[in-house]
Amino acid sequence: MIGGIVITGLILIGLTAGVSKIVKSSKPTLSKENIPPRLGILDHALFEPLVDKLNAALPDDYIQQVRQRFLQENPKLSEDEFEWRLFE
Fold this sequence. Notes:
mainly alpha, 4 helices
């Protein structure tokens, strides 16, 4: 009786560990190569001047400083994660 309970417990622990590993490995990873160009705006849309203004609004030096501070304050996050958050 006790042996059956122990075996059942071990099986449940194994199943739980397996399911949690599958869930963690199926989480999509963000890659800055997947960020849409031109903010994802379609070519035939008339937003080109607005996109240019938005891109010019934050100098590259400023974005580099923000990136460095973000990565220092969030060491578990990647540079790709920063790029996606900046895009959003």
